[in-house]
Structure prediction request, 255 residues.
Amino acid sequence: MIKNKFTLIAIFVLFFLFASSNSVLAEEKILDPFLLKAWDTFYNNNKDEYNFGLDFDGDGYSNRLEIRNAYSPFNKEKINIHESDVDDDGLSDYWEIVFQTNPFEKDSDGDSYNDFIEIDNLYSPLNSSSNEKLDVKIEINLEDQELYFLVEGYRWKNFSVSTGKPSTPTTPGVYEVVNKFENAWSASYGLWMPYWLGLDRGRIGIHELPVWPNGYREGEDHLGTPVSHGCIRLGVNSAKYVYERTNVGTTVDIY
Ligand SMILES: [Ca+2]
Ligand SMILES: [Ca+2]
Ligand SMILES: [Ca+2]
Prediction:
């Protein structure tokens, strides 16, 4: 009899633990402290205009609890805030909160360019009259073999790179882009380096996978592995992307 009672209690406890772990967003968890901070600013700036209430999307979870667990407070569906784009402008709800744009309006400043297009081309999505470009910075993480393209200090994009191999390593440090050429010729190695962004007096650079005079291009499969002579190699589309958005003088932090 007593044994049965204990069994029953154990089943209840297990059921409760199972149910709570699956249906309730964790109260104590903060997945992304940066997002929570951005949300607080966004909320305070916009609470009167959007009338958020406690649970804006009416899914039973408070706005703040959703943010703490990296879900969108604007979307009833249980999908990650990076995946949710309620106004369908290409800019996720995450980035709308970070850039303080209108998550329910494709074109926040009404200049006929949507929020995503503006940020991706380094124009302010909140100012239709300014032609001043958004701030750009590049970070290169040697251990992860990743290049981060930062806009206004935020890691907007990341690309896989190949930096210097152990015998010719890429030296960590804070550099500036000193020159840029759509196609640069390396006399020492006899190859082309498209979308060249020179660093360290042009001794090394960020560029697309190199091309030999016979047209052979270095394979994409080297990206993610340090095999270069010290340069930072990028894939075909990513090199063009970074080149077109980077000027002489841009800071490149290699670490
Ligand atoms: Ca909610
Ligand atoms: Ca959006
Ligand atoms: Ca716009």
About this structure: Strands lie at 136-141, 146-151, 154-162, 173-176, 179-186, 191-199, 204-208, 232-234, 251-254. The radius of gyration is 24 Å.
